Every structure is written in C-alpha cells, then in structure tokens.
Amino acid sequence: MDILIQLIANGVLLGGVFALISIGLTLIFGIVRVVNFAHGELLMVGLYATWLLSAKLGIHPYLAAVPLAIAFFFLGALMQRAIIQPLMNADPHIQIFATVGIGTALANGALMIFSADLRSVDVPWARQATDLFGLASVSRGNLVAFAVSGIATTGLILFLRRTHLGRAIRAVAQNRYAAPLMGIDVNRIYAITFGIGAGCVGLAAAVLAPLYPAFPTVGSFFVLTAFVVVVLGGMGSLEGAVIGALIIGLVESLAGYYVAPDLKEVVYFLIFLGILIVRPAGLFGVRGAE
Amino acid sequence: MMRAAAAIAGLFALFAVPFWVIPAYDAEAAGFWQHIFVTIFVFAAMACAWNILGGFAGQLSLGQTIFYGIGGYAAALMNQHFGLIPWIGMFAGAAVSVVVAVLIAWPCLRLRGPFFTLSTIAFLEVIRLLAIHFKDWTGGSAGLPVPMFVGTELRIGWSWMLFREKENYLVIAFGLLVLALIASWLVRRSRLGFSLVAVREREDAARAVGINTTAVKLSAFAISAGLTSLVGSFHGIYLNFIDPETMFSLPTAIQVAMFALIGGLGTVSGPIWGTLLVVPIAEAARGWLGAGANGLHGLVYGVVLVAVVLTMPHGLVGSIGPWLRRRFGAARAVDPTRIAAPVTGDAIARPPIGPVILEAQGLTRRFGGLIATNDVSLTLREGEVLGVIGPNGAGKTTLFNLLSGFLPPSAGTLRVMMPDGSWVTPSAPHAFAAAGVARTFQIVQPFAGLSVLENVMLGAFHQTRSATEARRIAEEVATRCGLGALLLAEARSLTVGGAKRLEVARALAMGPRILLLDEVMAGLNPADVTAAVELVKAVRDSGVAVIAIEHVMAAIMAISDRIIVINSGRMIAEGTPDEIARNPAVIEAYLGEDYVHVAA
C-alpha cells in the first residue's frame, strides 16, 4: 500500500512537470493552429540558459525564472514573426517542416556549442526529500515545480477568461476571419500567443533545471511526452493539458513500477495512439479540430 | 526523349564521379569520398521512397525509419540465426515491412495533417523502445555487430554483401537509388500516381471520381516501406553494426523527409537534388570547421530547411523548374477565360426513356436533432433528366451526398441497377462510382494545382488503367465541354464558369450512367447558362440519366423531364415542369402563402 501511495505522489508531481511544459504547446496550437515541433528544443535552450546563469554568474535558478520567462516571451514572439507568420497560410506540412527545421537547428547548435555532456545545475536544497504527511517522500524541487505549474496554469486560464487581451486571443481561436472585423490585430495576437507559449517554456526551464540536466536532445524527450499530454487532453485545451499531464504522470510512475522501467513510455505511447485513433479530438478537445 | 536521355546521363555522371573520377584524381581521398557518396545514394534512395508517400500522396510521415530498421534487423537476424545471405534477408525484411506498413497505416491514415505526423512518430518511438526492450532478439541498446567471420568461415564478397573495397558498396547503393527512382517514376506516371496526387490535392473530389482513397494511400505507404526496408538492410551491413538508436532513429526520419522537401515534394527527381545539395554543404562546412564540430550536419540541415521553406516552399525542382520554363518560354501562357461553347455535335435522336436504374426508398439523414433529409423516395429512369429544386437549406445537397455515398443514410434504402440488370447498394463514394454514378460539387472542388487535362484524366482513370487512354478520353471530353483551349491551364486559374464546366467534364470522363449535377449553372452569365443547358441535353441524349439540382428556374424547366421539390428535408411535390409551376405547395414554399391565391 505504501509503495502505491508513493507511486501516486510521484506520478502527480511528475504530472505537474509535464503540465508546465504542455500548456505552452497546447496554447500555441489552440490559437495559432500550428503544431510547434520545436517546443522541446526551446525547453532545451532554457535549461542551458539556466545552467549558464547559475554556473557562470551564480544566479539561483528560481530567481532566474521570471526574467527567463520574459526573455522567452520575446524569443517566441520573434520566432513567430520571422518564421511562422510568413507561413500562416501555407500548407500544414510546410508549417510542420518549418518548426522541425528550427528544432533540428537548435538541438544540433547546442551539440556544437556545449557537446553532448550533461550540464546539471547544483541546487542541493531542491534535491532533498521532504516528507508528505508521513505517507510519501518527495523531493522539494518537485514540489516547487508542481506549485509553479499550478500557479502558472491558473494564471493563464484567468488571463484568457478575464482580461481584454485574453478575450481577444480566444476570439482569434474561435474564428480568425471574424476577429479582425471586430478590430483585433490577428497577427499581433499570434505573436503574443507564441510569446506566451514560449514564456511558459522559459519558466518551466528555470524550475526544472535543478531536477533535470541540460543536454542537446533533452528537448525531444520532453516534447514527445508533451505531445502525448496535449493530444490526450485535447489539442488547444489548457484544462485538458493539465488533466492529461496528471494522467500521463501517473501512467509513467505506475507503469515504470508495475510493467517495466524501460516500457513505461511504450505504455503511454500506446495510450496516445489509442486516443489519436479512437478520439483524435482528445478528452476535452473540440471535435473536428483534427 | 531528351529528358530521359538527360536523366540517364545525369545518373551516369553521379555514379562515375565517385567510381572513376575521384579515384583517378586523388586515390588517397577516394575512400572518404566514396563513403560520402554511399551516404548520398542511401539517403537519396530513402528520400525517393519517402516522397512516394510524403510527396505524391501528401502524407507527411516522420516514422519511415521504422522500415529502415526492420530491413536492417531482418537482414542481420536472418544472417545470424539461419546463416541466410543478406540478399534473401533483404527481401524477407521488405515483405515484413510491407505487412507492418499496412498494419500501421490503417489506423494512422484516418488522421490528417500534424496528427498523422504525430501518430507516425509515436509508432516509431514504440518500435524503438520495444527493440531496446527485447534484448534477446535485437541485442538491445548494445546493438548487433555484422560479423565478417562465422567460426572460421570468412563471410565476405558479393553473396554476403560485405567487402573490403568501398567500390562495391557504391555499386549496390547506386543500384538501390536507381531502383527507388524507377519505382517513383513508374508510380508517378501510373493511375496510382495520379490518384495519389488527387488525394493530396482534394480528398473529397478524389472520392467523387471513384478513387478508393484509403486503398491508394495504403499502397503508397506499402511501396514506400518496402523500398525503405531494402535500403535499411544494405545500410545496416554497410555500417557493420546495428542498434535501435541508429536504425529506428527519429532524426534520420526527419532528415530523409527534409531532403525530399528541399528538393521538391512530389517531383520525381527532387529527392535526389535535395540530398545532393544538402549533404555536400554539410560536409564542406565540416571541412571548414574541423571534424570535431559535432552537430554541424544537423545545424546545416535545420538552417537550410527553414531557409527553403521560407523562400521556395516548392523546393529546388518545384521552384527552379517553372522558372526555367518561364525564362526559356517552353510553356506558353494560357488565357483562362477562353472557354468555348460546348461541342454538342450533330443532334442525335433522343433515346427513349428506359427502365428505372436508381431507386431510393425513405431516405433519411439526421445531424443530431436536425433532420436534413426526411423520408425522401425517388426513382430515376434511364435517359431521363430529373430536376431537384427547393429553397436554400432545403436539404438538396444532403440528398446528393446520400445519393453518391458521401454520407451514409440514417434510415432508408438506395439501390442502383448495374448494366447487367442486377441491383447493388453501394456504401462508399468509390463504390457508387463503380456502379456508374458520378457527381459534381456545388462548391467547385477542382484539383487546384493540376492542369485542366489532368483533372479530367482523373475522371477518365475510372474507365481505364492506361495513362495514354485516359489522356485521349480526357482530351475528347474536355473539348466536348468547351475546355479544349484550356487543357494546360492550371485548374485554380479558371473562372467560375470554367470551374463549373470542369466539374462536369471530370464527372463525364468517368463514363457514368447516372450523373448528379449540383448547381452547375449557379453564378453563370446568361450565355453560359444557355451553353450549359445545351451540354446537359447532349449528355442526356448520349444515354446518361441526370439528376440536377438547380436554382436557375428557366434552365431547370427546360431540361427536366420530371421535377421533385424539397422543402425542410421533405419531398413536397413531384411532377412535370408544368405541374410543378402550378403547384400551390411549391409556390408557398418559395414565395410564402400570400402568393398562393395570387397564382390561383
């Protein structure tokens, strides 16, 4: 019984990590209608940035979180303006190739600059275990990541629901041709949305740096999981991404123990394929989005 | 002829450079260059194979290394366990790959766009992880060496596909490239190739011309997988070592696709040009920056890919080819407004109206709570024109979708008489086409990127497998429909009138016995309407039964033998044009009840 509670605790916390990475991806898809295959590589860049700030300048990763999120907002907006915007009316396969190209270039650029070595940010506090009501033992870093994930997701949902800009963003998602008739600058909304999506990644990178080392292909590890989460929850649905992330976190934690450690990904990829085939709109997605 | 000669000369040069020229020029560096050319040939062959699926059919798979890996493992394992030479293992692997491809493609192909791509990536990941997990078979992450010695037997030479000299590898790799290229060329010229392009351009229209879209996409998937698998078998042996990371690699799958895109998606030679451009650039960059620059290849690939996507999305061949033709004036500009009057020929006596050939009983279609078609029964006789009228939103197009298999009915039955007198109940659009039912779309659905001739040929392929024959039929039908001067115009450049005419021509080229025309006269000017009326009469006189939805009253009254009126999904009247014009229910439906007394 104890082990089950421990596994569930691990799974939920892992789900928090996945949610933090996935909300940016699902937001970009939901609004801009582009699947950002370079999302994982952005996270990789963020992990390296955190490592540089921490190892070279001695800045604590948690202090770097907000500046990094802001920097990534501009990075994302720039990426949208320079590369995605000219392709907004192109075929979907052209958009896929564009983001795949960005991802390939970033991952290999990192390999050239940093080599394939693992670069870890050493924050001993985050690695220490803490007792959770005497039921399970989890690392503090994981708890922080979970909390930040919860705050960021709630904040984003409130932003989209309550603010004028948030409503404009949702209007564009509803109908990109009617929105400009209401005086919304659609292209500006796209750049902002891409920026917010990337900003979430910047935030995630700073919070995850104490837990995961940076290496050039770390992005593809996370992005594939993020795709599973986002498709499970329904492409474009923030709430769906959070629930999808918790499910995948639990699946990974439980399957790693009860099936086999090296098959846990097989289990959730099979879930992924099942969802794609049976209900491609995901658990909370709008039918027809596929 | 010239083009074929140029292609053969180019291929010969591509082989001659590493095989003869470089060794003669610099024997020291020959091994290095030959290795690069083997890599180029292998990747170009895989890019050609990928292009059959990703380019012709437009299905962007990023999981094609599944088959590269299966090929590699099949050859290596059959060698290891049964002592079979790789030439056998290679084809066994290709057979396995084709089976796996069909199993994977069947669910994946239900998805579109990025979702299809994601599902292929997911399958690749699952297979890679399974290959790592089942160590007993695959050697797990540690991989499998390709042994040169088994006991004391030296397994080297042509039968084992293992050599000390690189030249022989060059021969095999080049052979695989030529094989992939020929396969791709044959597919492109065949009915299958046309069907794939049709599916890519517009899936609904492809279904309307009788293409079984699932079957053709599956074929493309299978052909592509088989070829990729052959390449994988060879490359595994060439590398002397296989492991799940290299064989089932996502980065390799991405590279192959990007070479094809850079060269030009859907062109036969594009994948080769893409590989030839990018691999040497990456090698040259490595020369400048030193061999230690890990990741440089990938960086170059990524940057070139983004640059190509932004500046020439049709790739090298797709962008430079048309530019060359414009520059040197091979293709003359076609004026897309030059539609001629339909050639109706000598007035032949109208054949008598024959027996019932289509019969619908109680057709009903619900969308949630909305009943779009409610208990409609109708019959159509041979040689007859049946008009369908009704206010906007009455459910006319839904009725057509039921009559052509685009929507399954919620209730009711539908049957079509075959030429031999038997009755069939088709279920899918391609089955309706096989039963002799062709249709047009109210909102025109041309294969926009193809020429008028190719559009009509896609209809003609329903009658024949031969491209030459299809071209002959298409030219004849297009001319009959007044599109003779526009055969080479791109379909997207046509005017509304031209596009409507093209819809009819494409459907007629299928050689149907029943033709469903969905508002082919809407939006036309009066002269074009007159021409269209003549065309429909000529079609009728050639023995084809027609059901026409139309809002242009004068036209529908002129062509119809019988008219049915639909309102709110129900059939409210049926009769001759005269009867319908006087029917109070019809007047009420169109003009409101106030006008009923006026008419009376």
Automatic annotation (TrEMBL), chain A:
Keywords: Amino-acid transport, Cell membrane, Membrane, Transmembrane, Transmembrane helix, Transport
Transmembrane segments: 12-35, 65-84, 96-116, 143-160, 189-208, 214-234, 241-260, 266-286
Compartmental location: Cell membrane
PANTHER family linked to this entry: AMINO ACID ABC TRANSPORTER PERMEASE PROTEIN (PTHR11795:SF445), BRANCHED-CHAIN AMINO ACID TRANSPORT SYSTEM PERMEASE PROTEIN LIVH (PTHR11795)
InterPro entries assigned: ABC_transp_permease, BCAA_transport_permease
A Pfam family: BPD_transp_2
Protein known as: Branched-chain amino acid ABC transporter permease
Lipid bilayer topology: Multi-pass membrane protein
Family: Belongs to the binding-protein-dependent transport system permease family. LivHM subfamily.
Source organism phylogeny: Bacteria, Pseudomonadati, Pseudomonadota, Alphaproteobacteria, Acetobacterales
